[in-house]
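Researcher: Last one for today. Full complex below.
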Amino acid sequence: MNIGIDRIAFYTSHYYVDLKMLAEARSVDVDKFYKGIGQEKMGIPPPDEDVVTLGASAAWPLMRDGLLNDVELVLFATESGIDQSKAAGVYVHGLLEMQPRCRVVELKQACYSGTAALQMAIGFIARNPGKKALVIASDVARYELGSPGEATQGCGAVAMLIAENPQLVVIEPESGCYTQDVMDFWRPNYRSEALVDGKYSTMVYIHALLESWAQYADLTGRTLSDFDRFCYHIPFTKMAEKAHQKLCRKLKVELDPEQMQHLLEDSLRYSRITGNCYAGSMYVGLASLLDTTTADLSGKRIGFYSYGSGCVGEFFSGVVQPEYRNFLYADEHQNMLDNRTELTYQQYEDIFNYAVPTDGGEYVFPQYRTGPFRFSGISQHKREYESLME
Ligand code: HMG
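Model: Here's the assembly. Have a good evening.
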């Protein structure tokens, strides 16, 4: 049975910071950001956007196109959860007016949870042929102002419809996985910014890649030449490039800059101007690859490396389907990215320092530019959401 990604839609906030402006504010050479870490802009969510609105807005085109009517499983992957009990996906299920005969649950393991959700959705469809699942990976990446991680912030969500005989990518059954209990990046419940041992995290990311690949290669007998493109977890685009170089070096595969460009560049375009979307990051890369590659990817194999700090890594693969170009949201994605509002430094700091009130009071939030849904306020300890659709 062929199971995989039938549709993919991506959403990020309508506001961004250009890292040139951040570099000036931090007295850093802009090339450290533009070239050193390979990031140009980072998406910043306004106070009335959170993982629920990001996720619901990502999934909205699927709802509009009538693709969610018979979905029976919603898996919501995030590490920026908004409630210790209620799954963010249940709010999304409501906002999207999905049918009640549906299981909804939230998953967490740092940036890896999007892949955990994808694999679980595939298992669900294998057990229930003909049924469909919706995977949403939605996150807001926040580090302290002035910290080394600051330039790698971002936000966004990806919504993927998972089905039998998918239109976009069939996910192949073999996976290589690697888990190790490490403290490279974490966020205690009392903090809204992540803590990170930055350099160490890059080393663990690569170690987990080499281990995951080794198991995948053992299972499949494939070599790097069996892949036409790669999608890596993208905390910043340079990380993906460095990881692939390390993998090639380990396998004694020569790689010139042109080949590197061919294998990775199209998957990095969206992330370079939105920043880290944590759980959704690798899938933002997939949307970027499918949307922006001019060559026909039909029948081509993509290698995926998903990484979540803490840590879990997984290497797996998928094959692009013949008619995939007819089922993309490429124009909508481009339109959204082209129509964002740039923040000044002061606006960025004000938004960053804005904290969702935790005093149990009654709040109505000012309206910023958002997608079809917004986080409108808090009343009686309950988050309130508003649909801007007629
Ligand atoms: P840093 O230590 O300030 O940066 O922050 P640096 O000094 O290492 O410089 C970065 C690169 O820019 C270096 O290149 C410099 O040489 C270069 P490299 O040596 O690495 O090749 N550079 C320049 N290049 C051109 N012109 C210049 C210039 N100046 C310097 N003028 C760090 C880097 C990654 C540590 C920081 O951004 C950070 O802490 N980020 C957050 C953690 C992170 O993203 N880790 C990635 C792996 S872990 C992961 O992916 C999981 C994660 O997504 C979370 C999850 O799973 O939930 C984070």
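Residues 3-387 form a domain with the Peroxisomal Thiolase; Chain A, domain 1 fold (CATH 3.40.47.10). The radius of gyration is 20 Å.
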